[in-house]
Design a protein that fits this description.
Chain lengths: 109, 113
């Protein structure tokens, strides 16, 4: 079973920032936070990961709270192509990824 | 690079039939895995392999067999198909078990009647 909890669904207006929350209530010190997304019926796609510090790449930003019990994935200017199911996962090296049901993000025109 | 390829894209089986879902990657990845995804649910790990000749069970291994004779290929065998195995199957690979990024194939949609 997934160790993280996420809202079932969210809406976001096109062009606005999408902020997707995730709770990591049982995360341990050596576990990283990962975010993946799955567009329609395709295979999941890696977005970003982090340990303690906030991270940014060309796709998104990741904010991790100081106690690491929650994280937020930020898509700064959401487009219709960002409509997808977003998964947050916490795991350490040598563990397998466990995908929960994720958050279904709908970007609305 | 073709990445991760899966065949077939769609398959319909009758209960009791057996078949093999094919998965191949051309990235020289050591780690490969199989997931199934049922409607409205996340992906559940069936089997995984950390290298050629090494396989292990995931969360839902019953009714499935795997082998890893080469680095490139990781076939999934359904021994005796059941309606409960109707699902979408995804194969994934990564450079190693510790890699942050897994690359997923396009999936195989299987229906068992």
């Amino acid at each position: 079973d997934a160790k993280t909890t996420q809202p079932t669904s969210m809406d976001c207006a096109e062009g606005r920032a999408a902020n997707l929350p995730c709770n990591h209530s049982t995360i341990s010190g050596n576990e990283y936070v990962y975010w993946y997304r799955q567009i329609h019926s395709q295979g999941p796609q890696y977005i970003i990961h982090g340990l303690k510090n906030n991270e940014t790449n060309e796709m998104a930003s990741l904010i991790i709270t100081e106690d690491r019990k929650s994280s937020t994935l930020i898509l700064p200017h959401a487009t219709l192509r960002d409509t997808a199911v977003y998964y947050c996962i916490d795991k350490s090296y040598g563990q397998n990824f466990v995908f929960g049901p994720g958050t279904r993000l709908s970007v609305l025109p | 690079n073709a990445g991760v390829t899966q065949t077939p894209k769609f398959q319909v089986l009758k209960t009791g039939q057996s078949m093999t879902l094919q998965c191949a990657q051309d990235m020289n990845h050591e780690y490969m895995s199989w997931y199934r995804q049922d409607p409205g649910m996340g992906l559940r790990l069936i089997h995984y392999s950390v290298g050629a000749g090494i396989t292990d069970q995931g969360e839902v291994p019953n009714g499935y067999n795997v082998s890893r004779s080469t680095t490139e290929d990781f076939p999934l065998r359904l021994l005796s198909a059941a309606p409960s195995q109707t699902s979408v199957y995804f194969c994934a690979s990564s450079y190693s078990w510790a890699s942050r990024e897994q690359y997923f194939g396009p999936g195989t949609r299987l229906t068992v009647t």
